[in-house]
Amino acid sequence: SLFGRVLLICLVFTIVTGGEFTLMRIIVGLISTVACAMVAVGFKARYSATFLIVFLSIANVVINGWWDLHEAHPERDFRKFDFFQTLSVMGGFMLLANLGPGGLSVDEQKKAY
Predict the structure, then answer these.
(1) What pLDDT digit, counting tens, does each position of 85-94 carry?
(2) Which residues contact residue 70 at a Cβ distance below 8 angstroms, ignoring those fewer than 6 apart?
(3) Using alpha carbons only, what angle is made at residue 97 by residues 61 and 10, rounded to the nearest 5 degrees?
(4) What pLDDT digit, counting tens, does each position of 45-77 carry?
(5) Residue 46: how many other CB atoms lie within 10 Å
(6) Alpha-carbon span 28 to 38, nearest angstrom
(7) 35: number of CA atoms within 13 Å, CB side?
């Protein structure tokens, strides 16, 4: 479960750092970094995963709106790829929010004490 959380974090960072660095992408990156750090250590992981699902949903529609581009536009395929990649990462966060962070997390360690 720790390994799965770390892989999700890596996917989020590849999504955030890919593409043009616009102001919106930098803001999304900063907010995602804080929530991803909480997911990585397993501190309030379910709430952080739920926040990332909602946040990435909104950011995905705003940043990767491939349907706004003409069919012959060269950036359309890149945005479509990024849109569906972000959608699959959100599915991973849905699993995390549903199943919990696992045994190697701060949340589980707090239950032991």
Answers:
(1) 999 999 999 9
(2) 76
(3) 65
(4) 899 999 999 999 998 898 888 999 999 999 999
(5) 17
(6) 16
(7) 23
Tokens of 19: 């593409």
Is 80 in contact with 16 (CB distance < 8 Å)?
no
Residue type present at position 43:
F
Chain position carrying tokens 């909480």: 38
Q: How many residues does the chain have?
A: 113
Identity (one letter) of the amino acid at 59?
Answer: A
State the Cα–Cα distance between residues 20 and 111, nearest whole angstrom: 43
| SS3 at position 87 | helix
